[in-house]
Design brief:
The protein is mainly α and 69 residues long. It has a single domain, classed as ACP-like (Non-ribosomal Peptide Synthetase Peptidyl Carrier Protein, Chain A, Orthogonal Bundle). 48% of the residues lie in helices and 0% in strands. It is globular. The N and C termini lie far apart (26 Å).
Length: 69
């Protein structure tokens, strides 16, 4: 996955959809990258726009998944 964004521009309130403009394919690529990096699966039922609305929501979701392993 290759994004043309400086990591320093991503903050807790950054919207991955509106600010970074991730499209559906990029979101799927991000999900696969997260699953591979953190060694857990994100079920289809868990995927919602709320998770990708803000960066902090995604971080919270990842932390919750890791705590439940």
């Amino acid at each position: 996955m290759s994004l043309q964004i400086d990591v320093s521009e991503i903050h807790d309130d950054t919207s991955l959809i509106n600010d970074i403009a991730l499209d559906s394919i990029q979101i799927l690529e991000l999900i696969v990258a997260i699953e591979n990096r953190f060694k857990f699966n994100i079920n289809t039922e868990e995927i919602s726009l709320d998770i990708f609305d803000r960066f902090s929501n995604l971080v919270e979701h990842i932390e919750a998944k890791m705590n439940n392993q």
